[in-house]
Structure prediction request, 572 residues.
Amino acid sequence: MAFETSRLLGFGDCDPAGIAFFPGYMRLLVSVTEEMFAASGMPWPAMIRERRIGVPTVKLDVDFVAPAFHGDELDFRVSIARLGGSSADLRHRVAVGERTVWTARQVLVATSLESHRAIRWPDDVRAGLAAHLETNDARDPAA
Amino acid sequence: MAFETSRLLGFGDCDPAGIAFFPGYMRLLVSVTEEMFAASGMPWPAMIRERRIGVPTVKLDVDFVAPAFHGDELDFRVSIARLGGSSADLRHRVAVGERTVWTARQVLVATSLESHRAIRWPDDVRAGLAAHLETNDARDPAA
Amino acid sequence: MAFETSRLLGFGDCDPAGIAFFPGYMRLLVSVTEEMFAASGMPWPAMIRERRIGVPTVKLDVDFVAPAFHGDELDFRVSIARLGGSSADLRHRVAVGERTVWTARQVLVATSLESHRAIRWPDDVRAGLAAHLETNDARDPAA
Amino acid sequence: MAFETSRLLGFGDCDPAGIAFFPGYMRLLVSVTEEMFAASGMPWPAMIRERRIGVPTVKLDVDFVAPAFHGDELDFRVSIARLGGSSADLRHRVAVGERTVWTARQVLVATSLESHRAIRWPDDVRAGLAAHLETNDARDPAA
Prediction:
């Protein structure tokens, strides 16, 4: 089940060319991913401060299909294509109305903020993320 | 011939986990690309304001290989793998000392800021970019 | 009547010291001001693109009273202390629960984006802003 | 003796109105302040990570005098008007050529990142900052 939310493309997200500044899109992507974790019972402040777990992005592939303009409402749809032992392979689709403006593949890795090494997903985080798997076959704890 | 420059990873580029915030990396990527254009005789302010040409990113694939930390000096190396009729396929390598921290493929497209449609590279811009081609065989004006 | 809205202090708004990064606060301030204009019938995209009117900030005084932390809900309250012929003197109060975390005075000036000179507020914009005046005595078209 | 450095106003620092986005100015301000500390023997990464000292801004008053445009070279001049027991009262002047574009007063407070309370400046930090005092009379360890 995909996670869905939206963001308004504001003045501060746009550039002198009058369209979205792509690093601004990446800020929105992070805030949407953070919102998905919170909505799934894994708020980042507690994960980072108390449990010392981070979820750095190790791979990011983005296709910018069409420009979006200041004032556009961006609809985000996030699902998880594959859930590994310590990784999650997210798929983002961002649309303005019916029009897809960009899509992204983002791979996150559960990481100890002490050692900066990968760790296995804690069971509760894994269960929270599993709710957003595209199919039940995509769980692969060996990865 | 690759373009090389460096950036200090500052306080404002890092996150509560103490490492680089990847949208901050993307801001640095844009500033490095802008510097490469300026160093090659194509400063963006004139391109955008006078000639109404933008170079939006249409594809971006990033591999984050290792974390970088607040205070690290990031060495950027940018080359052009392929120069099409209206596109440029850039390769970025970012290192801290000998250690690669991330690499990126970024495809830019010359675009009219009036119509938001692709245009052919103006001859002078094309010539400026061609200086950074990885090999002489990579020029392909038909693309 | 003050304008009220809220923002979650996200991962990307915080710094390696684990608290809000003040330029991140300023991004939120701009987005809140933009939301107040939109809610009052003056969306910025149309103002900027069609009417070529900007509202640059000419003065900004901020008192950071207490730190806010990643995950805090920030409640913004914006009112207008004084509405001049081409300026607006905004007062922001930002709180986490009952605790004030920062306050700001922000002076905006209606500006032609062609000449970058001050212009008088158009009547509709002025009327929209007047709804947020702290008192009826604060309207001063001579300023 | 003032600290002086410069920054290019890049594409990513500007807004859809074609001029500097003021939160972008604030990012530059932080990076300039960080550079001044580093140049004075107090690099922030060591201060923050090893000594757990932060220097949050508690007061910021900015006057935006004239717009700056994409491509402008911003010359920063920073001095310290007053150095208290745990605070520093900085004055920034930012110019494009001979033209002042903005000035700021910024008050920093030495703070424990464990307790988030003010601490007295360590002697070495105090000595480093004192090099940038406007006059020798401005040292006031009682503040």
